[in-house]
């Protein structure tokens, strides 16, 4: 019995060590940040940090779902930008109009993800090629909606989702936690979620085992679009406006990949979790906060983020090389 329990613990640790590493990294960096912040560990400091990290966390969750299937979504940042522009038109007016606008924005993000999935599955195109093409389409739509920055949002709703609950807990963190519980947990424990992991590990074997391969990939891309849309809504809540910012969309896409790898999600697919990607996003965002409290020149921030991005991608590539070499040993 002891051996069985020990084996189960080892298996659990092997599956979760990436998430645990990302969580430990974030806690260490955040503790260093608040211990050196002039205001210390206060609700306002935590709220500000949470609001800044939430956007990337949603996009990182979206990216992780796709990467688990051994794919990649280079349109995630542009879906966020498109939904931000759309929300600046629709999430205004009466409570009924505002609620309808939120639903339309979420459906738009879901539709973007479904489009990616349909093209990849039935068009049999590579995910990287497909999502590069669709990202250009989504950006073009965003430019049609907002050729110049503008628009507005229901300020009461925006304040409610970016303020503190009970004066202590950041509302953005609560929404992020609810999103994990409502979307990620059911997906990961469902037959479709298990099929998504199987597809990422060995798609042919998953197909031969009669797993719903196409449905799993379609669900992953569709949910990725939905999560990016939630990020787009939050961007509108923070900025009170909409902007078709090419640089911002590209940055969120690249940073989401870094967050995914930092969170222990294998770029080869079949390993990792969205929770790890969230911790990776939180850790990645804390870099800028650390530069602030240590009074570094703001011009250094892109350099440090670029270094972290390069290291994160390198870690993922090392994993890919190891897998490839192991396969070659048996040829």
From TrEMBL:
<keyword id="KW-0997">Cell inner membrane</keyword>
<dbReference type="Pfam" id="PF02653">
    <property type="entry name" value="BPD_transp_2"/>
</dbReference>
<keyword id="KW-0812">Transmembrane</keyword>
<feature type="transmembrane region" description="Helical">
    <location>
        <begin position="300"/>
        <end position="321"/>
    </location>
</feature>
<keyword id="KW-1003">Cell membrane</keyword>
<dbReference type="GO" id="GO:0005886">
    <property type="term" value="C:plasma membrane"/>
</dbReference>
<keyword id="KW-0813">Transport</keyword>
<feature type="transmembrane region" description="Helical">
    <location>
        <begin position="102"/>
        <end position="121"/>
    </location>
</feature>
<feature type="transmembrane region" description="Helical">
    <location>
        <begin position="218"/>
        <end position="240"/>
    </location>
</feature>
<comment type="function">
    <text>Part of the ABC transporter complex LsrABCD involved in autoinducer 2 (AI-2) import. Probably responsible for the translocation of the substrate across the membrane.</text>
</comment>
<feature type="transmembrane region" description="Helical">
    <location>
        <begin position="165"/>
        <end position="187"/>
    </location>
</feature>
<feature type="transmembrane region" description="Helical">
    <location>
        <begin position="128"/>
        <end position="145"/>
    </location>
</feature>
<protein>
    <recommendedName>
        <fullName>Autoinducer 2 import system permease protein LsrC</fullName>
    </recommendedName>
</protein>
<keyword id="KW-1133">Transmembrane helix</keyword>
<keyword id="KW-0472">Membrane</keyword>
<dbReference type="GO" id="GO:0022857">
    <property type="term" value="F:transmembrane transporter activity"/>
</dbReference>
<dbReference type="InterPro" id="IPR001851">
    <property type="entry name" value="ABC_transp_permease"/>
</dbReference>
<feature type="transmembrane region" description="Helical">
    <location>
        <begin position="12"/>
        <end position="33"/>
    </location>
</feature>
<feature type="transmembrane region" description="Helical">
    <location>
        <begin position="252"/>
        <end position="268"/>
    </location>
</feature>
<keyword id="KW-0762">Sugar transport</keyword>
<comment type="subunit">
    <text>The complex is composed of two ATP-binding proteins (LsrA), two transmembrane proteins (LsrC and LsrD) and a solute-binding protein (LsrB).</text>
</comment>
């Amino acid at each position: 019995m002891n051996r069985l329990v020990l084996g189960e613990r080892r298996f659990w640790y092997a599956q979760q060590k990436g998430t645990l590493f990302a969580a430990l990294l974030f806690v260490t960096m955040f503790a260093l940040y608040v211990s050196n912040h002039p205001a210390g560990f206060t609700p306002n400091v935590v709220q500000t940090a949470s609001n800044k990290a939430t956007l990337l966390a949603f996009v990182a969750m979206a990216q992780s779902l796709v990467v688990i299937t051994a794919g990649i979504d280079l349109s995630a940042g542009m879906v966020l930008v498109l939904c931000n522009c759309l929300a600046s038109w629709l999430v205004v007016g009466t409570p009924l109009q505002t609620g309808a606008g939120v639903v339309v924005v979420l459906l738009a993000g879901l539709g973007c993800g479904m489009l990616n999935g349909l093209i990849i599955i039935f068009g049999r195109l590579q995910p990287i090629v497909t999502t590069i093409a669709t990202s250009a389409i989504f950006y073009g739509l965003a430019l049609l909606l907002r050729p110049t920055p503008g628009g507005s949002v229901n300020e009461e709703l925006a304040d409610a989702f970016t303020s503190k609950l009970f004066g202590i807990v950041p509302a953005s963190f609560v929404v992020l936690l609810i999103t994990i519980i409502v979307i990620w947990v059911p997906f990961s424990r469902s037959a479709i979620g298990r099929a998504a992991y199987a597809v990422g590990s060995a798609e042919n074997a998953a197909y031969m085992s009669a797993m719903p391969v196409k449905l799993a990939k379609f669900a992953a891309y569709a949910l990725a679009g939905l999560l990016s849309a939630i990020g787009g809504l939050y961007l509108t809540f923070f900025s009170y406006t909409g902007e078709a910012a090419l640089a911002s969309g590209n940055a969120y896409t690249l940073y989401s990949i870094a967050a995914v790898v930092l969170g222990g999600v294998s770029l080869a697919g079949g390993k990792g979790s969205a929770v790890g990607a969230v911790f990776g996003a939180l850790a990645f965002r804390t870099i800028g906060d650390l530069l602030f409290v240590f009074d570094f020149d703001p011009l250094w921030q892109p350099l440090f983020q670029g270094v972290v991005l390069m290291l994160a991608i390198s870690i993922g590539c090392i994993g890919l090389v190891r897998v490839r070499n192991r396969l070659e040993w048996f040829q």
